[in-house]
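May I ask for whichever protein you like with its backbone structure tokens?
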Amino acid sequence: MPRSRRAVAMSVSHSSRLNKLVREQYMRLPQDGLVQVTYVWIDGSGEGVRCKSRTLDKEPKSIEDVPEWNFDGSSTAQAEGSNSDMFLVPVRMFRDPFCLDPNKLVLCEVLKYNRKPAETNLRHTCKKVMDLVKDSHPWFGMEQEYTLLGINGHPYGWPDNGFPGPQGPYYCGVGADKVYGRDIVESHYKACLYAGVKICGTNAEVMPSQWEFQVGPCEGIEMGDHLWMARFILHRVCEDFGVVATLDPKPMTGNWNGAGCHTNYSTEEMRREGGLKHIEAAIEKLSKRHDYHICVYDPRGGRDNSRRLTGHHETSNIFEFSAGVANRGASIRIPRQVGQDGYGYFEDRRPAANCDPYAVTEAIMRTTVLNETGVETKDYADH
């Protein structure tokens, strides 16, 4: 085999080369009224997702129809082997785009043996905060950037021992020499639509093999639920194609864009006529709590984002807070249309691609609606 063809073959997983037509004959078999439910949860890394499936006697019509389950937390970095059972508590149900109707995907919270939330279960406190601020009707839209890698860890489609041409022609590009992996992106989009995930768009990004999809608008806790399920579906689609989707904020060093998860946000009063003053007030609050937000905008307290937020490649400097109209080099961007209309929303460009959306949306609400200050957070458990 010529070297170039051999390199392409080696960039995808062995499983992706299995005969999918053989699989199809089994997937078409009747289920006799039984339903396959796949439980999905966030593992001990705070970034990875895990799943396992079980059979229910009938199709669940609501999340209340899906029973709790358990798993071995010692194998997911969430418990010790001597006390390893963790609870899976179903919180949101989606249609299954891989096994099709009537089968389901179910997002779960993870509880420890004592029914307290696991360390990476950030949904638990986010839900409390969202319940407190529900009268402000917070809407979010998150722009998830990611990079496609071959199974060898090299960006998919890049030369084996080199680099593609400089950035410029790839953003929203069209053509085999400008975009890599569109089949994956379009499959993910359709799978999310089928599942009921509130995906609202996608585009090729500035670095070749880097893509973005957007989820929203979602209100309150719904934002984190839908983005996490969209991430799970992305990883499953990539599994079928034999490639890897990484959410690393800076997968390639040098003169290449990093990957973020820009977060668009508004409250009901921001969306009304004259709402710009409320947007500006929220930005002022955020400006006084920059360090706190940086700490929660990636899973490692800002260390991941320090590789990305350099003040270059359409990012702000991690050590400085800034805001501006239509400024993609600022911490906070007010879209030009919002500036002209005098109401709408703003975009926080600081969250990293591997952020936990529960942590990001909770932090924004704590600062802009609950008026918290400093680096400490308030415990609302007794309120």
